[in-house]
Amino acid sequence: MTETIELALKTLESQLNQPLETALESCARCGICAEACHYYQAESKVEHIPAYRAEQLRSVYRYEHDFLSKLFPMWTRSKKLDEPTLANLTEIAFSQCTLCRRCTVNCPLGVDTPLMMRAVRAMATASGTAPEILVMLADAAIEKGKDPSFYKEMFLDQITEMEEQLRDITGDQNAAIPVEKQGAKILYVPLAGAHTILPPAVVFNAAKEDWSLSIFEASNYGVFLADVNRAKQVAKRIVDEANRLGVKEIVISECGHAYASYRWDVPNWFVGEFNFKVRSLIEVLAEYIQDGKIKVDPTAIPEAVTYHDSCNLARNGGLIEEPRYVLKSVVGDFREMTPNKAEALCCGGGGGLVALAEYADRRIAAGKPKATQIQKTGARVVVAACENCRLQIGDINEHYNLNVKVTAITDLVVRAMRLPKPLPGHEAEFLFDDEKVTVA
Amino acid sequence: MILLILSQLLALVGLLVGVYGITIRYAETKRRALPADKSPLKGNPQHGITYAFTVGMMPWAKESTRIHMIAYLRGIGFHVGIFTAIGALLISPFWGFLPTMLSTLLMIVLGLGSLLGAAGGVMRIAEHNLRGLSLLDDHFAVWLVTIWMAAAALALWNAGVLIPFYILSAITLAYIPLGKIRHCLYFFFSRLFFGKFFGRRAVFPHPEPVKIEARHD
Fold this sequence. Notes:
heterodimer; A: alpha/beta; Fumarate Reductase Iron-sulfur Protein, Chain B, domain 2; 4-stranded parallel β-sheet; 10 strands; globular
């Protein structure tokens, strides 16, 4: 047995808890999960059935743990883990499953196939066979956390520039983007890029919020690797920052995996150190609108708008009604996709796939059902509250000629706030290829 | 008569092996770690668990069963037949005291379950996806249970089939912990974890309209 295989098996053993063993043992192989998967919907073949994918791990598990399979491997198609099997498993887990859990909710037994795919990802990461780019991105974030001073000065310069833009846009000379504000109530954690800082800054200032901008980004590539050790180190940067500033709440940018991990997983990794509430920016927007802390024009966006439920936010995160509440406050013609909410189709970009250029073709192909769904709504604007979803929908928009605009919820809210000047890149019009539509 | 008693004893041994095997499986799984979830609740895990075992099992609760209603009903009928066969086995020494109507009803349920099982067995061979997914274990399990149910139905009709029924019962019950039939145990674990996961996140059951969560102060 090579060291790689030994590490992979050791990781499988360490992952084997009650939920994982249950997922490995429950399947009746009825195949009813097939159509639940966007990969299968896009291309109907056995390999795209969630149960088939899970069987690839089960065959290894059974060989190690099942009495009958050890005696008669043929009986249950069980096999000893070897390098080609691990390579196949790794490819399946990173390129053919976005961990969306749509198969789970459609399974009569509720088999958690994504949990098994996570176990495979963990095996691949531990044995050094996971996609390098994800490992590099996670490690870069960890390094950044070790010595933020290296880039902090540059970051603060950028924020100063953004602050000037903010004042110009809002007409409020007191508008600010506070960083490392001791005792602030909210620590807002953006993604990389001004587009996740400036629009929320507009909202926070309008609501007169007591907030501070995190110097770190919310993305956590350790989560995609299913590597709790790395994921924990990435998250620790923000937990430490929140503790240092003494904030009461961490607000996560419009990001699916970051929200799901900080809301549902990270508190389990830092028991005793995690004394803050975690909310998504969407929940904060809903609260501001509900409480009248920001004024929005319900007629500001006349275009037909549809909303894509990010799997991490809706099915895996429980954020289902909040985005709809916000959108219905600022959009006149809101159209639901079918199916939606907890049954929503994955766009195909989840699970870190957007970052994996080598699987771009598969990702675009698997996005076809979502493209069809969008087309059926007749909407011209697609809103997604997750950066990876927006990137994927942007790509399928181009590939399948959907001719829609893809935007974030905060962007629409800011448009509906009718500022003296539009945000950069948010001119007061949605420009389509075939027409020009006035928005405000 | 001796053969009948021997076959009954064999069925009893099968039952004991099955129960012992499943108990071992249960204990082994329970010995594994159960990750604690300390994240603050949004919904209610208890409600989620209740949902998972009730409304969540209904055919309209899932897209998959809505579009495959016939397959769903076939599965339900098959499993009703299996549980009826277990019940019929347990009361088999008293079959002679059953009212005719009840024994006829049992025969119908078992016969129907057997037919639906056979349909499932044929589907596993004929349907491309199912064939690709199925293991020898799956084929064996579905036909074993199907023939067992058929034997139960026939034995209720003709006591001459009792001995084969008891022998088949022994094989079926002893096979439960060994092969795919043990999903009968993991079904409960699976729905429990499903309910806890989605319940605490307020995904299932999903309150509508949801209250916008209040801020920290």
